[in-house]
Amino acid sequence: MALGHRMQTLAWVGIASLCLGAAWAVPAKKERKKVEKLKPDLVLYENLDLDNYDVTLDNYGDIMDLNNYEELYDYGDLAPKIEVGTLAPRPKDRESLPELVTAAPTPKLQPPDTTNPIRPAPPGPGTAQGVPSCLPCLCIRTSVYCDDTDLEHIPPLPPDTTYLYARFNRIGAIRAGDFMGLKKLKRIDLTSNSISWADVDAFRFLPSLQELILPENRLTALPELPRSIVRLDARLNRIPSAGLRPEAFQDLTQLQFLHLSDNQLDYIPAPLPESLRSLHLQNNNIQTMHEDTFCNSQDQSHVRRALEDIRLDGNPINLSLFPNAYFCLPRLPTGHFL
Fold this sequence. Notes:
Elements: H1 2-45, H2 60-63, H3 69-72, E1 138-140, E2 143-145, E3 163-165, E4 173-174, E5 187-189, E6 197-198, E7 211-213, E8 231-233, E9 257-259, E10 278-280, E11 309-311
Parallel strand pairs: 2-3, 3-5, 4-6, 5-7, 7-8, 8-9, 9-10, 10-11
Antiparallel strand pairs: 1-2
């Protein structure tokens, strides 16, 4: 009986020992996991020189190994848990519901009022439906636009015409009566036509004409110009020196811009008015000049302050052969000096 009681006691002692051993094994296992988890951290930082540690954008990749950065740190335990709730219960009291904004009712169309109808303004004189027109051109106030309308001659113009644009047409000649009576005409632009001839009096009796623009035509001579002219542009024509009247520009005391480049001139069309500011004669056949072409050789005090732009490039002339021809100019001409 005593022996049986002793054996039972030993059995209980053994069971208790097994339970205690299992209890001690759980925290030891957790400690070993912590140590193993810290090893990668130590490997990551064991090569750092903490005394000379300086992280910049240039060496950040060398100091921190970004390839296994996510593997070293487990953020699974820190992820917040999101609980999905249920919808709010519908209120039982209808008065607690928010008021809904209702759309305004669509207004009903009203029948038109025929007692005072609105009528379009009556067309003006010489116009169609109130749009200024002088077919085949377009007239806007005192400006007449006839660009690219296949014109073969200057059309009849209103007497108050101030600006005429008839570019890119097929006009072949300018007659003496084309601009007769147009005392307010200030600008004529006939760029890119086929004009080969202009009557000598075609522009002479236009007292207000300031700009005559004739480039890209076939002119072989220039007609007489009014003294009011400020700008003459006859580039890209076929005008030889014989096509200019003697002293053609001397009395044009308002002339400031004389552009005759890309023609067939043999000499500079002197004398030139003192008002001239820009002289373009490039790409002609000018080979020589006189000492008095620009300056008065008898008056060394003569100064032409206005004439600052002289183009002689593209001509077979050596400008260095005429050193006394430029003493009165504020700038040397553009051209060949060698």
